[in-house]
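dude i think i finally got it to work??
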Amino acid sequence: MLRALTRAFGTVLALVALYSLLGFLVLPGIALRIANQQLAQYATAPAHLQRIEFNPFSFELTLWGLEIGEPGKPQLGFERLYANLQLDSLWRGMLHLDAVALDKPRGEVVFAKDGHLNLAQLFNVPPSPSKPDEPASDPFPLRVGNLAISEGYVHFKDLRPSEPIEFLYDSMNLELNNLSTLADDSADMTLVAKSPAGGRIDWQGSLGLAPFASEGTLKITDAKMKLWWPYIRDSLPLVLQDGVLSLDTHYRLNFAKGTELLLDKASLRIAPFAIKAPDGRPLARLASLDVSDATLDLAKQRVIVGKVRSEKLETWAALQPDGQLDWQALFASQPSAPSTKGKHVPATAEPARTQASAPAKPWQVLLKDVQTHNALIHLQDRRQKEPVALDVGPLNLTMRGYDSLNGSPFELKLDTGVGKQGKLQAAGQVNLAPVSANLDVSTQDIDLRIAQAYINPYILLELRSGMLDSQLKVELASVDPLALTVSGKAQVDQLHTLDTIKNRDLVKWQQVDADGIRYVHGDALSIDKVTLQQPYARFIINEDRTTNIDDLLIPQPAGAQAASTPAQPAKPADKPLSIRIGRIDIKDGSANFADLTLTPNFATAAQQLNGMVGTIDNRRSLPASVDIQGKVDRYAPVIVHGALNPFDPMDSLDIAASFRRVELTTLTPYSGKFAGYRIRKGRLNLDLHYVITQGRLQAENTVEVEQLQLGDRVDSPDAVDLPIRLAVALLKDSHGKISLKLPVSGDLNNPQFSVMPIVWQTLRNLALRAVQSPFKLIGSLVAGGQSQDLSTVAFAPGSSELAGDARAALDKLAAGLKARPQLRLEIEGTSAQSSDGPLLARQRLEREYQATWYKILQRRGDKVPANASMLVVSEDDKPAMLEGIYRLRLKQQPPPQWERLSREQRTLQLREAVLKFWSESATLQRQLGQDRASSIKDYLVDKGGLSDDRVYFVDTTLGQAQSDGRVVTPLHLDVE
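look at this
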């Protein structure tokens, strides 16, 4: 019995030893040799497995050192593969592995230029025989208790794009628990992948294989967008300069019923980001973009984004000469889809195309809260000769409640800078399907000089300054047809335009307010009230009877507009735009008028214009009321009142104008041309009343001339052939006045009818009747008086300021005139070239420096004072300006020999030449004489208490200075 037991035990030991020998040594060796033989037979690259270990008792299998590829450059391999087979696999009918561990796997994934994958070419596997119509079989039953991959290495390279794509993950760790191919079974999964470039992937969740389904969280941190950007660049011509992406989301994926993918609680961050065009032009850059609380549902085709935040977006856009945006041109340059010409098209192509053309279910995009902060947009219009640049920013944008499908409006709020100091704000609701909007829009300090490039092709006008403020409500009902309504108010401050031919002011104002604006596109424009603060205009009649406005207009090529606009079929005439202005108020206006057809030239100015124009409406025949008051040359009041229809003045007009105490010396050019005499003295009172009814004119004009005295004779071919001096003396009444009634009537529709010839013929007939009626000689009354000690006023050289002794003398003169109300004072402004010329020239040069510096500050967009005289010009800046002043005023270049002078000597020569030019200026001498006369009159009126109608100007003269250099202005006394 003992022997039998011993024999049995020995047999068992021998079997165990044999089993161990086969399991531990023989089978691994045979398996290793067979594996390497199979690798050599089927692998297309060198392949080798170093070692196989097997534990026949625990059924643990370990493979060591697999390498497939050239020595030192393996394309596929691992350091260790461990698997632990469970015995219950025998009765459960499935392969059950308790644990699988893969250490340091390595893979090189390369797509060649032709699209072939290197891993698909590593083995020559014979194709399996096809079995048509074979139903899909269930997956191989497998359960793995724990699958772990540690320190994996994946190197990816794709040579198909225009720029190869390459990235590396050298630390990949994956763990799966309870992995199974059984139905409705799932495993817990954890994946961490790191890249030496700084990117990281964290993936946690569950994974089911039958059907394939997964749920969990995916986090991508600091992924470099440059690694995969060539995929985008081949479709869009955008060069990525910088881009880092991070993603964190919860997901659910299921292929049981089609493809179901749900991303929720997703957040995306891109920071920083920058792209440019292929030619190197910057297109956009971004400090950060954050998307949070986002959901994507592939089955429902819906994207919901809770929050979007962007910071410091900067972008560039330009309008090309062809009118196309440079971004459009950039994308349009991409190649179209390859042509199929000459290629065989499968028979299934046509049905596929028909199916693709069927309308697909649209995606729904919901944006709950989008905010952009501190954005900057660089805009440029290259259609002009000189490109127009405009910076918009810092821009802050908020958008809430956007839904791409339901057609409901979303909230929009915009706050941005425009240019250097402008601001634009907009808030309200916008809809994109269909397009509509309801916005409150306001602007502040928008620099209107940006319009200069658009003005230049049409008029020689410089827009020196102008700021736009507005508060508007914009209502857009549709785009096609355009249904737009704009209402609110607008204001333009400090508008200043310059005639670039003569370099002088043309039109300007301090402020224009338009209240109660309402514009309905294609139908009506109405403004409740327009208020003009300190408006100014200059109007000049040239020697050839054209105007300064005609000089500024640039002739446009004939047919230019037609050539630029494609021919379109004729359309019936649209209803004219209704224009209505409820009221126009004018406050402290002024104007300059000059007539260069006269010799000497005539010029006058109107100041203190105040008044209103009533309702203007082009769809109603009611005339607008007019009531304007002002003054000519400061003292002569002007009143205009009545009614007119500005859209059809020939139909209805009733205007009365009254001019009082107009100094007739300013009308000397007209008297010289038409009467043949200068006017030495006199004042004019004029009452005009013009009535037009359906083209019929009925005018009543009353002219009253006070104390008219004619001066020197003027040779004029247009002068009337009458004894003018005698006629004037005879027409005067006992008070020294001339009163005339000049009625005019006629049909303005008759092209032969003209008002002025009738007026002049009436005046001629009156003068002729006065000459022929001697009984009118009893009409003059002469009385005299004089002040022996107060007959002159002395002025310092170059000055129109009254000295202390002169003021004392004028105080006495004023007291004497007030005691003798019948006396009238005449002031003969005088200047002397020898004494006044040098000082006037220096003063004129200083004003030129101030005016030049004022223009420089305006062009730079700096804030400037109300006028140039308030500026202080540095002595260091004056030499550079002097060069331009010399060329502009002397209309010549500096002599060539001055080039050899030093800077100081050249500046001295330029200054002396300019001073000499102005010291000989008759215009400056005459202006000084007028200023001296004005200083005396202003003092007597403002300080002496005299009524301005008792002080007259006499035409200025050029006299001689006294021994001490002072210049004497004579005073004359007269009576009515």
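Residues 336-356, 561-570, 770-788 have pLDDT under 50 and may be disordered.
im so relieved honestly
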